Amino acid sequence: MEGNETGQMLKSLQWELNRIQRTVRLTLQSKLQGLVGQSLPTLSENRELANSIQKMLDTHSLRIRCPQCGHASILRVSPRKGMPGGAFVLDHTIDRKRTFHGGSSSVPPIQLTAKPERKAKTTAKTRSQPAAAGEIRSKVG
Ligand SMILES: [Zn+2]
To answer: Where are the stretches annotated Disordered (predicted)?
Structure first.
């Protein structure tokens, strides 16, 4: 009985969190529309812009859906010839290969999507490091 109630509580909590997450995503997405098509004069400024967008998205486990292929991607700015402000690219892994799409001189269309969950069974999150760091023996002849 009690277990069942706990399960129900967790279920409704999860539902509540999903709802909040959705609100966050929609709010961020609508605010970020103000940046689409914008660009700053220098590479470093554009990088900073992309970084701050990306940081915000990371906090909420969000990614930008690549307008070209639909994959969840990370917004970056990379240097490019003839583009003093750099190029806005979408960085993602497709078929295990790191791939860049886009390349516009200004912020590309932003549609947010949930960060994909890691499918590979690498639960390396809680793996602890071997505690060998403490002892360093020095040979003194
Ligand atoms: Zn893409």
So the answer is: 99-141
CA of 69 to the centre of ligand 1 (A): 4
Q: How far is the CA of 118 from the centre of ligand 1 (A)?
A: 18
Q: Cα 33 from chain centroid?
A: 17
The SS3 of residue 66 is coil
88: CA distance to ligand 1 center in Å? 12
Give a yes or no: residue 31 inside a domain.
yes
- 36 domain residue, yes or no: yes
| pLDDT tens, the chain, 141 aa long | 567 899 999 999 999 999 999 999 999 999 999 999 999 999 999 999 999 999 999 999 999 999 999 999 999 999 999 999 999 999 999 999 999 999 999 999 999 999 988 765 555 555 444 544 444 455 555
Q: How far is the CA of 108 from the centre of ligand 1 (A)?
A: 12
Quote the domain boundaries for residue 70. 2-116
In a domain, 37, yes or no: yes
Domain total of the chain = 1
Give residue 73 CA to ligand 1 midpoint distance, Å: 7
Q: Is 90 helix (H, G, I), strand (E, B) or coil?
A: strand
